[in-house]
UniProtKB/TrEMBL annotation:
<dbReference type="InterPro" id="IPR016187">
    <property type="entry name" value="CTDL_fold"/>
</dbReference>
<dbReference type="InterPro" id="IPR016186">
    <property type="entry name" value="C-type_lectin-like/link_sf"/>
</dbReference>
<protein>
    <recommendedName>
        <fullName>C-type lectin domain-containing protein</fullName>
    </recommendedName>
</protein>
Length: 194
């Protein structure tokens, strides 16, 4: 189950929209970089907020006054999380605003379906290129992150077919394919309206 946001009194500088909480799933032990014990899931989430390199953290409820926190410096894919009924896993997700939409580059490679599910879990969908201006901003996003220049995208706002695009730096333009790419592992861009 995916839930966006959870009130814990982080402060006005961090909006709940930047937080994704996943119930009953935990970070696998191979990704865990640090552990601590606190008195609540909110305090566990705050541990990840105050540790600069922390990208996600699992709060495992031990009893009414004890929560085990297991954090990772890696951006653990949602699909790698393990089942555990007594846990909440928190991710920080920063979206950049362009026009009326907010975008986030998914740095890990995923199939079109998995990328779609990640975007959906974060309250959005795979990016839809609405205009040439948006295409130019996407080029800037990829250049600033220095990651692979292939992305998954939706051809239409509510489309459910698998398409991919790449950035042709010789003409500084996003080139969109009309061929379906369902199983190819690629980076992706999520978009949402908040």
């Amino acid at each position: 189950m995916y839930v966006v946001g959870m009130a814990c009194g982080i402060g006005p500088e961090v909006m709940n929209k930047d937080l994704v909480m996943i119930h009953a799933r935990k970070i696998p032990s191979t990704f865990i970089n640090f552990k601590t014990t606190v008195s609540s899931a909110c305090k566990c989430k705050l541990q990840c907020f105050i540790i600069p390199d922390c990208l996600c953290i699992t709060a495992e409820i031990i009893n009414i006054t004890s929560v085990s926190c297991q954090g990772s410096y890696e951006d653990v894919p949602y699909t790698s999380l393990e089942d555990n009924n007594n846990t909440f896993t928190f991710y920080w997700r920063k979206y950049e605003r362009v026009g009326n939409w907010y975008y986030r580059v998914g740095l890990e490679e995923a199939s079109w379906f998995d990328a779609s599910m990640v975007c959906y879990a974060e309250g959005g969908q795979l990016m839809v290129a609405h205009s040439d201006l948006l295409q130019q901003h996407l080029i800037s996003l990829f250049n600033s992150h220095g990651y692979k220049l292939h992305i998954h995208y939706n051809k239409e706002v509510m489309g459910n077919r698998c398409f991919a695009a790449y950035i042709d730096m010789s003409v500084t333009k996003v080139v969109f394919s009309n061929v379906e790419f369902c199983g190819v592992l690629q980076s992706y861009i999520c978009q949402r309206n908040y």
